Automatic annotation (TrEMBL):
Keywords: Cytoplasm, Endonuclease, Hydrolase, Manganese, Metal-binding, Nuclease
Compartment list: Cytoplasm
Protein name: Ribonuclease HII
Keyword Metal-binding set for record: yes
Domain called RNase H type-2: residue spans: 30-220
Cofactor details (free text): Manganese or magnesium. Binds 1 divalent metal ion per monomer in the absence of substrate. May bind a second metal ion after substrate binding.
Protein family membership: Belongs to the RNase HII family.
Enzymatic reactions: Endonucleolytic cleavage to 5'-phosphomonoester
Length: 220
């Protein structure tokens, strides 16, 4: 694909991914938060969620499901999203909470925290509250706001996609820091997922304080 063709494709893709936000704006909603998480599947580390409120004129091409993007592209878009967004909030729950209440409930708490933190920023900047939430395949009754759950929402909504990038880069950076403390598990590469190198580290050294015991019942 030539450069001009690639740019035309990305512009068309952005228009497609703005459809939910534009529809909601047409219904009178102004501050729409896209919410996503990363880290439900790893054997170690936290689950991290992000909530992002974008301006109506958001025009950054290339924002998409974080899993579809290279690490370099995610890092670039992370900085642009932080610059352009009206508000960004992060929430997380560590491995101990995950072991205590299960990964689904921990994810909901992380998402709720992300929304609350984004709303704090939105109030500080604009004196406004989030008035609609777009979730990626999730519904949280404790969030008392109008909301929509979109299956594969990180590939359908630009706000959810932006949240997926913020959450992914945030968690990846955390795992890279953990790798300096626990160098035997290749966290800087696998981010806590169950790769061969990770399992080899578990066999040699056992679990660290950041491992999820409920995910690793065959290890001590």
């Amino acid at each position: 694909m030539k450069k001009a063709e690639r740019e035309a494709y990305l512009k068309a893709r952005l228009e497609e991914m703005l459809s939910y936000e534009r529809q909601l704006c047409g219904e009178g909603y102004r501050y729409i938060a896209g919410v996503d998480e990363v880290g439900r599947g790893p054997l170690a580390g936290p689950v991290v969620a992000a909530a992002v409120v974008l301006p109506e004129d958001f025009d950054v091409i290339g924002v998409d499901d974080s899993k579809k993007l290279s690490e370099k592209k995610r890092e670039q878009l992370y900085e642009v999203i932080l610059e352009k967004a009206l508000a960004v909030g992060i929430g997380s729950r560590d491995n101990q909470v995950i072991d205590e209440i299960n990964i689904l409930e921990a994810t909901k708490l992380a998402m709720t925290q992300a929304i609350e933190n984004a709303e704090i920023m939105l109030r500080e900047r604009f004196g406004a509250d989030i008035d609609y939430v777009l979730f990626d395949a999730m519904k949280i009754d404790a969030v008392e706001k109008p909301q929509m759950s979109l299956i594969k929402g990180d590939a359908k909504s630009v706000s959810i996609a932006a949240a997926s990038i913020i959450a992914k880069v945030t968690r990846d950076r955390q795992m890279a820091e953990w790798s300096k403390i626990y160098p035997d598990y290749a966290f800087e590469k696998n981010k806590g997922y169950g790769t061969k190198a990770h399992y080899e580290g578990l066999t040699r050294c056992g679990m660290t304080p950041i491992h999820r015991k409920s995910f690793l019942k065959n290890f001590k």
